[in-house]
Every structure is written in C-alpha cells, then in structure tokens.
Predict the structure of N-(5'-phosphoribosyl)anthranilate isomerase.
Amino acid sequence: MDTAVKICGLREAAHVAAAAGAGARYVGFVFFARSPRNLALADAAALALSVPEGVAKVALTVNATDAELDAITGAVPLDMLQLHGQESPARVVEVRARYGLPVMKAVGLSDAADLATLDLYQTVADQILVDAKPPKGAELPGGNGLAFDWRLLLGRVWRRPWMLAGGLTPENVALAIRSTNARQVDVSSGVETAPGVKDATLIRAFCKAALG
Ligand SMILES: O=C(O)c1ccccc1NCC(=O)[C@H](O)[C@H](O)COP(=O)(O)O
C-alpha cells in the first residue's frame, strides 16, 4: 500500500532534506508561539525555499486570526493549512474560502464520543488529522508524543483523506499502519531527541518503517 508521510515541526533545512530524501510527502511548519517548534515568518519563508517540488508545505496554526493567517500566507509559500485548535466547522469553511488552500483539521480522540466530532469535520475539511486529545492542562494542543487507542478507528468509513497522528515513532509506525489501515501518517515528537530538536537519523528511520 502506498503510504504518505508527514514530518511536522521542522525548523532546519537539513531536516527538510532528510525528510524529503527519505520519501516524506508533507513537511509541517509550526506557527504557535508557545511551541518549541515555532518558526518566525522569515525563517519559515527561507525554509520553505528548501522544500523540493512534490513535497507539500503545511502551515500548522492554532485558533489563528485572519490577520495572523494573512501574515503567514503572505510570507510563506504553502500548499496546505493545518488547523490545530478549537476552530469551528464554520471557521474551517471560512479559512478554505479566504486562502484558497486545502485545509486539514486536527481532531483529538480519547474515546468513542470524540468520533462524532471527527464526522462533523469530515463534512467541511479537505483532510482530517486524527490525533490524540491533549491531556487536560497541556501546554500544547498537539505534538505531545501521545498515542490514542487505535481500536477507536476500527470499521470507520472515511469521507475524506485522513492522516494518523499522535505518539508515532520509528518503532510503532508500521504496527499503527497495519492496525488502522491509515494511508497517511504524521509525526513530530517521535523524530526528536528533545522537544523541538529533530534528528535526521530518526526522520529517516520513521520514513523507512512507514514506507516499507
Ligand atoms: O508540535 C507542536 O509544537 C504543536 C503545537 C501546537 C499544536 C500542534 C502541534 N503539533 C502537532 C503535531 O506536530 C502533529 O500534527 C501531531 O500532534 C502529532 O504529534 P506527535 O505526537 O508529537 O508526533
């Protein structure tokens, strides 16, 4: 099966090169001040130039205002917006229309009740990022290296392309793909040696394990 890999939270051209060279199809840039992976606009614009053709550049934002999204999309050439906060379905529709970019909405799962939220966003977003719900009081709404119970996804019928995220690592990604039939996987913490510090060897190991 053809799997697509997204490496999220990249901050250095060497890691973009490692991801692209290992077959990743998406790279994610984080625009969230509290994150150790946060990028300044100028740095993101420079980093985007290093991304080879055919690898999608995704901007991750959290409850961003129009002014913030205007600044990001005006400075950085992008292929997709990832909304990782509490953006409503109406906001997803608005962002898609305003920027003309595909929108991937992150939905956090911790139990079966969260599946209704996922179904709702499948009606408005271009893609769904199925992630672990952050623990109460977490500093970050994502990128916490936590997995959810993959069995929640058994028997799901997807209306949109979706991506599995949350606590994936080079060690568990092959099992995660087999367990969920995910065609796309996303990782951040699992290819880091410390929060925000990516590692080229781990990036390559993740891609190898996901792509077979
Ligand atoms: O990475 C961050 O710092 C971050 C900040 C705010 C919202 C989301 C964030 N990250 C999301 C991701 O990187 C991934 O899409 C996803 O949550 C998986 O992360 P991980 O469990 O660390 O692999």
Remarks:
- Residues 8-9, 30, 32, 35, 37, 60, 62, 84, 129, 131, 140-146, 165-168, 186-190 surround LARABZUK (CB under 6 Å).
- Residues 4-211 form a domain with the TIM Barrel fold (CATH 3.20.20.70).
